[in-house]
Design goal:
Elements lengths: L1 H6 L3 E5 L12 H11 L14 E5 L11
Parallel strand pairs: 1-2
């Protein structure tokens, strides 16, 4: 981050999961770790005048495609 602040450009991309927003039975620790990214200090840096961007990608469930 210090280099990005100095350059006033850059991007931080965090990969999370929709599980960070909703709890699922028997996945408490997983959901808690993903929820931590929601309010992490790096994520709260967005919108600051430092010139870099912070993104959070939260993929959800998907159907597997068949190989036929």
């Amino acid at each position: 981050m210090p280099l990005m602040r100095k350059q006033r450009s850059g991007r931080i991309v965090n990969i999370s999961s929709v599980a960070g927003r909703f709890g699922y039975p028997l996945f408490g620790w997983y959901c808690a770790s993903k929820h931590a990214l929601e309010g992490s200090p790096i994520r709260s840096a967005r919108g600051r005048p430092w010139g870099f961007h912070v993104s959070l990608i939260e993929p959800g469930p998907s159907r597997r495609s068949s190989s036929t």
